[in-house]
Design a protein that fits this description.
The complex is a heterotrimer of chains A (293), B (175) and C (370).
Chain A lengths: L20 H13 L3 E5 L3 H5 L12 E3 L5 H14 L5 E7 H6 L2 H9 L4 E7 L34 H6 L5 E6 L3 H12 L4 E7 L3 H4 L6 H10 L6 E4 L2 E4 L1 H8 L4 H5 L10 H22 L4
Parallel strand pairs in A: 1-2, 1-3, 3-4, 4-6, 5-6
Antiparallel strand pairs in A: 5-7, 7-8
Helix pairs in contact in A: 1-7, 3-5
Chain B lengths: L1 E8 L4 H14 L3 E7 L8 E9 L14 E4 L19 E5 L10 E5 L1 H7 L3 E2 L2 E2 L4 H8 L5 H11 L4 H12 L3
Parallel strand pairs in B: 1-4, 4-5, 5-6
Antiparallel strand pairs in B: 1-3, 2-3, 7-8
Helix pairs in contact in B: 1-4, 3-4, 3-5, 4-5
Chain C lengths: L1 E5 H12 L3 E3 L7 H13 L5 E3 L4 H12 L5 E5 L1 H6 L1 H9 L5 E6 L13 H4 L7 E4 L3 H16 L7 E6 L7 E5 L23 E2 L8 H30 L6 E4 L6 E5 L1 H16 L4 E6 L1 E3 L10 E6 L9 H9 L5 E4 L9 H9 L6 E3 L7
Parallel strand pairs in C: 2-3, 2-4, 4-5, 5-7, 6-7, 11-12, 11-14, 14-15, 15-16
Antiparallel strand pairs in C: 1-8, 6-13, 10-12
Chain lengths: 293, 175, 370
């Protein structure tokens, strides 16, 4: 951790929930990005976390924009900074709803146009800011206020959508591995063109676990293989250490499931489908990394 | 005010002919507007363009309902469109045709624009270019002057064969 | 330089002269020629702008917003469904106090599909905080676009400006165009609240009931100040380039007993009708309403007024007629005409005047009086 700068760009007056992992992630994102950075934030938890007018908890400029528009707004901003001869980092910081659902068109457009920006999706697997309704990123079986019986369909594979645009750099990350996230943001910002980082950000009120378990929940997501940490540089896949271990010797899925109220009373069939999903995902990525596909 | 209605098929250059004519009139020191009437039609459908020429600024944007001159760039349209509709008494019809066409009342003029374009090998995407030679015919009719017609063509097209085609049409126009 | 051009090409030529840093746009009939021409200027090196070929109009305005807040000059163009698709961002640009300039080529809304002129698209954005000007000639499309940047970027305004031109009847008509050497008419864009990473600020954060209304009032205050700024800019434009504009273009109104109020190309065509009516001994005049937001003060008291609305607010009435009823204190004869490109000639307009029934509404082409 010694490489991470002391400077803080989020001051201690956020409006985040106790145990919020996304604000923790943003802290490390900004430490990696440094002061010559602008955040573009669509409607999401960060719209609130940053503080209420006239105050702000952020020590970089934050440009708030409507739900669907983060990638497009960042696109215009990036082009404008380049037109002004400035290298300022433009970082879109958006939730899973603003990325995988309502914002996916703008994201696709910005990626395809080769926009020089970093798009970060912090994924708490539901519409958290409005009180945990299902999003396209909500996993199979999870109960939300709009899927009270558990979500009947699988989590949208956002990363494969992004991958189809062949960005020069994309990665997954998890709030429980802040040094990994920090390094990935650093690397992403050193590469011109569109970059994408997808962070799994466990959410105590949404996932219904005690606030002090936020880090543990992220670790379990990775250790069970539910969330796989990897990087894809110019198309070449590298699976990161913690996930390599997890792919060889995964922790039992129940360890991850049992601590979360959203997965209460999962049927054996759903649990079985979840296991199959993990297995398929692990095999696909392992084959790809080995150059077998 | 002198009002002209141009009939053509989409892709035959009727819209550009209208612009060229307006530009030539403008170079003559007159006021002119060119206005295509766009339907939802695609390539090949009958289309109409309007040109107004006057000594005063033109404030009319509506269609021309009583033209002084009707230009028909494709006479096959005459089977489906009444090209003479609203033609002023004493008005003129200019046909792209090697021969006179019966049933055309009033002063009917004809010139083989297609033949002239093909002779100059003025062909784009398989279609002969009609909008530049027609300007020569219009110059002969006195709608615009020949120098302005040539200038307008040169302002819009680099290929000098367009000017040559206009001159041929100027010479060949028959009543 | 004197040449001929379509309304669309005139807008593009004005944009070239204004040299925006960023243009983000999406094609839509009948506006497409504007963005095609700008893309060509950029490709050919005639315009040093960043041209962002966005994937939708919502993104076009979002990109203009993101660009504008860095302090660069920005432009976009749209029409009809494109304008409605960006509606959320249209509000955002004004609320964020960004001097974006947009050309809107007025076109009807579906269904059924109709690509011809109508003003309902622009009027559906009238409460967004944008300044809206409607032009009637190719020359005016050029001049108004140039002036729009200067008005929008004035520190007393800092609101976006929408330049409206009629689809096809102006966007595609070829008329004379005198392009100018703008010199220092347009100084570099200076945005006082431009993003500065040395002085980080939050833009548009959560704003509670105790503060929100202050920002709304600030928009209205600037909208009121904009009247004076518009007059100043139009005055300077006239001094420099010799062409005079105002909130309305009045034609033979001084002694008129009846005044036709219309917008866009119908407002110009009305002048021909006025000449015909005057020849018959009817003391008629016309007033082409150019600025719709901020709405000007109109001197119409004591005269018959015939308003032509190329728009409609269902369950209410013609938008312009009702605006004039409330702002000018007259009870006009409201004619709904020209919807979706419906053909309206100067003869028709003269008939509206001859057949006027003050206080009533009629739909041109519909037999029954409403």
């Amino acid at each position: 951790m010694s490489t991470i700068p002391e400077e803080e760009y989020i001051v201690k007056c956020t409006s985040a929930c106790a145990g919020c992992s996304s604000s923790l992630c943003l802290r490390y994102v900004l430490k990696a990005a440094g002061p010559d950075s602008v955040l573009v934030v669509p409607a999401c938890c960060t719209s609130v976390i940053q503080g209420i007018y006239p105050g702000t908890a952020m020590n970089v400029p934050v440009y708030n924009i409507a739900f669907a528009a983060a990638a497009a707004c960042a696109s215009g901003m990036s082009e404008a900074f380049r037109a002004l001869g400035r290298k300022t980092n433009v970082i879109a910081y958006a939730g899973d709803g603003g990325t995988a659902d309502i914002g996916v068109q703008a994201l696709s457009g910005a990626l395809e146009r080769g926009t020089d920006f970093l798009y970060i999706c912090y994924d708490n697997e539901a519409y958290g800011n409005t009180g945990m309704q299902r999003s396209g990123a909500t996993p199979l079986g999870a109960r939300t206020t709009t899927t009270p019986g558990g979500k009947p369909t699988a989590k949208k594979d956002l990363d494969r959508i992004v991958e189809a645009h062949n960005p020069p750099y994309m990665a997954t990350a998890c709030s429980a591995y802040p040094l990994d996230l920090y390094k990935k943001v650093k690397k992403a910002l050193s590469i011109p063109g569109p970059k994408f980082i997808h962070i799994l950000a466990p959410c105590p009120p949404g996932w219904r676990y005690p606030t002090e378990k936020t880090v543990e929940m992220g670790k379990l997501a990775v250790k069970t293989g539910t969330w796989i940490l990897y990087e894809r540089e110019y198309g070449r896949l590298t699976i990161n250490g913690p996930s390599k271990t997890a792919m060889r010797r995964p922790a039992p899925l129940e360890d991850y499931i049992k601590g979360q109220g959203r997965f209460k009373n999962l049927s054996p069939e759903i649990l079985d489908r979840m296991r199959q999903q993990i297995e398929r995902n692990v095999q696909r990525l392992a084959r790809e990394e080995a150059g077998a596909c | 005010m002198y009002e002209i209605r141009i009939h053509s098929r989409g892709g035959q250059g009727g819209v550009t002919a209208a612009k060229l004519l307006a530009l030539a009139a403008f170079r003559d020191g007159k006021y002119a507007t060119a206005c295509p009437f766009y339907g939802a039609e695609r390539r090949g459908a009958p289309v109409v363009s309007f040109v107004r020429i006057d000594g005063e600024p033109i404030k009319i944007y509506s269609q021309i309902h009583e033209p002084d001159l009707v230009i028909v760039l494709d006479t096959s349209i005459m089977d489906v469109v009444d090209v003479l509709q609203g033609l002023k008494a004493g008005g003129t019809v200019l046909l792209n045709s090697a021969h006179p066409i019966t049933g055309c009342n009033g002063a009917s003029l004809h010139v083989d624009l297609t033949g002239i374009a093909l002779a100059e090998n003025l062909v784009v995407a398989g279609s002969p270019i009609l909008n530049t030679p027609v300007l020569g015919a219009l110059a002969k009719m006195g709608v615009v002057t020949l120098p302005s017609a040539e200038q307008a063509i040169r302002e819009m097209f680099a290929d000098e064969r367009n000017v040559k085609a206009a001159r041929v049409a100027y010479e060949e126009l028959k009543a | 330089m004197l040449t001929i051009a379509t309304g669309n090409k005139a807008v593009a030529a004005a944009v070239k002269a204004a040299r925006p840093g960023v243009v983000a746009a999406y094609p839509i009939t009948p506006q497409t020629e504007i963005v095609e021409q700008i893309a060509e200027y950029v490709t050919d090196g005639d315009l040093e702008s960043r041209y962002i070929p966005v994937e939708s109009e919502h993104s076009a305005m979002a990109a203009c917003i993101g660009a504008s807040v860095t302090g660069v000059r920005t432009f976009t163009a749209t029409s009809s469904h494109g304008l409605l698709y960006m509606h959320e961002m249209v509000h955002w640009a004004a609320g964020a106090r960004l001097p974006v300039v947009m050309a809107n080529v007025n076109r009807a809304l579906g269904p059924g599909w109709n690509t011809w002129a109508e003003h309902t698209d622009a009027f559906s954005q009238r409460d967004t905080g944008w300044l809206q000007v409607f032009v009637g000639t190719v020359q005016e499309a050029y001049d108004a676009t140039l002036m729009a940047f200067k008005i929008a970027e004035d520190e007393r305004v800092l609101l976006p400006v929408m330049v409206n031109l009629d689809g096809f009847s102006l966007s595609h008509i070829t008329q004379a165009l005198d392009t100018v050497d703008i010199g220092d008419f347009l100084p570099p864009c200076h945005l006082p609240h431009a993003i500065d990473t040395e002085n980080p600020l939050g833009y548009g954060p959560m704003t509670g009931p105790a503060d929100y209304f202050r920002f709304r009032w600030d928009i209205e205050r600037s909208m009121r100040d904009a009247r004076g700024v518009i007059a100043e800019v139009e005055g300077e434009f006239c001094e420099r380039f010799g062409r005079s504009y105002g909130p309305t273009e009045d034609y033979r109104c001084e002694d008129a007993d009846v005044v036709v109020v219309a917008m866009g190309t119908l407002g110009k065509e009305a002048e021909v009708a006025i000449d015909r009516l005057r020849d018959e001994g009817i003391k008629a005049g016309s007033m082409r309403l150019r600025w719709f937001r901020p709405f000007p003060d109109l001197d119409l008291a004591g005269r018959d007024v015939v308003v032509i609305d190329r728009d409609y607010s269902f369950g209410f009435g013609g938008v312009v007629a009702h605006s004039i009823r409330s702002k000018a204190g007259v009870s006009p004869y409201s004619v709904i005409a020209g919807l979706g490109g419906q053909e309206v000639t100067y003869n028709d307009i003269a008939d509206f005047v001859r057949d006027r029934c003050p206080g009533e509404e009629t739909w041109f082409g519909v037999n029954d009086h409403v």
